[in-house]
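Note to self: keep these together.
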Amino acid sequence: MLKIRMLIADSDGEYLKALSEFLSTNYGHKFTCSYYTKVDALLEWLGATDEEIDIILISRELFSEELVKSSGNAVVILNSDYNTNMPKDVYGVQKYSSGEVWVSDVLCIYSELRESKASHCTGQKNTSTIAFFSAAGGVGKTTLALSLCRACISEGIKVFYLNLEPVASTLAHFDCSSSKSISEVFHHIREGGADIISKLEGLKSVDIESGIHFFGPPTRFLDFDEVRADEQLRLIELLRETGTYDMIVVDFASNLDKKTMETIASCSHLYCIVASDRVSLDKDKAFKAGLKLLGKEVKERLSESTACILNKSKSGCEHEDYDFVLPYVDGISQETGDRLKLNLNNEFGQAIYRLLISIRNSDLTRSGL
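Structure:
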């Protein structure tokens, strides 16, 4: 995980107070910040310290070319006017953009300016990865994955929703208008670099309504044809290395290929979703038969972590072939404007919370606690 040292200067004390509260609450693991309302105090502190500063953000009215020359640090202007021309070779961010957009813009600029000088800290969380897969479409796989994410948020569990579908369902549930594409994420993974985690932090989005972290959908659905298994594995590992998340929920596409199989095998838990219709049941049987043909090592890993979920059950009866049975409840996904909102105040929601408890207990058992 990266710990970035920032100095932020603006004559508007109320703005600095609000920004400080937002950054300390949501990004205390990422930034160490000092705040100034007067540029003289900032320059005095810079002249008296040997501490390395990664980036200085300063309002347009306090900015001066002298600050750039004397500080020797990367300087970014906090711009309140979208139409203001920027000084040559100086970056700017819109100071009144939403908090998540502000952080994303700052991290992207930081990544470009200070690529080789990022200071790494070791992540402290033992992150669990939860894979959701179904051989058939329309069984509620994405609804289950996102419902688990919402349950995590309500319990104070930090979660990242990673959708690996070429045609992602993300747009139906989140506002992706300002989101960076997962296509850009894989581009940076291919390029590598010392501060790759910082780049990924700048590309992620946070759904304001639910608090779920995610990447925007691919620019083109064909982009996923170019993604290799090792790149998917690297992405999951990088999300773990941030030290931010207790859980990463991975929503896989329904096509089962070698790339998907290798990525699934790396996850802490695999939930195979099936509905009670004939097509879904037949495809589930074919999937399970395919698992038997895998290599011994992969089969052993999957046998320890795989559970089967019967979703949309109308009988309410347990079935010996399934580890979890989730009831059919009408109106789980409710349209609010142009987005779908999940309603967990029902039997389905209660089942999701039981699933979450099962995952947490399993993780505790594995860790020996």
